[in-house]
Amino acid sequence: MLIAFYIILTLLIIYVLVYFYKKLAEKTNRERLRQDWGQPKNSRYIDLDSVENYFLNTISDSAEKLQLISDKVANDLYLNEVFKLVDRTVSRVGQQFLYARLRTLDKNTDALMVQDAFAELMADDEELRLNTQVILQKLEKNDSYYFQDLVYAKKIDRPEFMPLIYLLTFLNIACLLAGFFYPTAFLVFGGVFIINSGIHYWNKNNVSVHTSSLGEFLKAFDTAKSLDAEPKISTHFPDTGLLIRELTPLKRKMIGVKLDNMAEGDAAIVGFLVFELLKIAFNIEIISFYSIIDSLREKKEKLKDLFKFIGTVDTAISVAAFRSSLDHYCKPVFNSTIGLEVLAVRHPLIADCVPNDLHLEQKNLLLTGSNMSGKTTFIRSVGINMILGQTLLTCLADKFVMPYSKIFSSITISDSLLEEKSYYFEEMRIIKEFIQESRNEAPSFFILDEIFKGTNTIERVSAGKAILSYLAKNNNLVFVSTHDTELNELLKSEYDLYHFTETVAEEELLFDHKIKKGPLKTRNAIKILEINDYPAAIINDANATVDLLMRD
Hints:
alpha/beta, four-stranded mixed beta sheet, 14 strands
């Protein structure tokens, strides 16, 4: 009796210690989440390839979207780096959804407004936010990247010989039962077992491809169910309860056959050996696998909705955290007319960025200035804020009034020796796409940096003027930066003229990075040569040539 007492006492002490350890760990975790609020992640640990997979798979759904932001625009505007800055998600599902959100413009703003309303709730209710983040931690491991594979996996058709598999299964059941009365039936059982072994391991490849994603569905389902149990969350997402009820039979089917454990080293885990033999003998794995695949196919749209629900919740928290880290931000105002009004716009990737204002009414922007003065940075700032405004309802500015529009850019172009493409022909291809897009009914925002800089001056200015005039038609907004001041006079009726400039003082260039109204009137290129100690003969020759050209 005394030994039994000590055993019970020991177990009780262990239970109490484990209980308090879990409570302490939970408290520590919540405190860490509280302290990390608003802080960016360490971007070195972001697996961008896995993050991007969900977005790449949503390309098949692009008919429902206004625009998917192209790789070209993403590269021109450093969108991947902006994503790393914005990303404060907890789950891998949320991280994938946030990335896709940044690269997707919806046809209307309904989902954007739901996301924003929930972000406001998360910002105001710390206790709810912490509870939500703890729930989302069920999906914080990298394995959760594979859940989206379940939603967008390539269609798997049942083998044509499935009737034979059912027949072999029935035959082995019959042989097993008959063997107790007619031992020779066990010989037939063994022969069928060998055939079933070949079928089983042939199908292993199909099962192993989907095992991780099938297991992640179970975690995603439980996560969504826990989130929906919170009334403040279910109020924002009223359709989630019905979604969970519709997916419950699918969850039960997966748990019943333990597909989440099927591919875990059959030979290495002795405890699963008997189960493995039973699966082979009666074709349990292949029959249950295709039964689940059929169910998944039927519930594909529901699985997409489940992913979007979890992703939207986590993305909204990330938006709220990102906003909390900013000294200034605003929500954009979408206008129905072509024009732009921004106050104190900043680039998110530039520390202590000089804020700039711009006001355009029914006109476009022609921006001139020297290198390093801030032209390209400014047009990138407006471009990335237009994306942030239309995807996260967040702009780094004091005011941002904009048309809800598609976004296209031609900033970084390079020659491709391997593909035998010159800079000029690559730019021709990109701008031809701009021309085609400019004819569409939906407004477009075009960003062009140094148009046709690979051609001679006369043709560059002539072709540039013609194309920029064409793009300025319809409901389009065009930003172009250029060194070609000749375009100022040619385009002044369609474009507002602005410039960046610098001053030369004490043998150095000083840039204020402030945009200024009107055309550029100063020319400092030759002065820069002089500052850099070019020979006096070159300086004198250059100045004389300028005087000659000005007289002509």
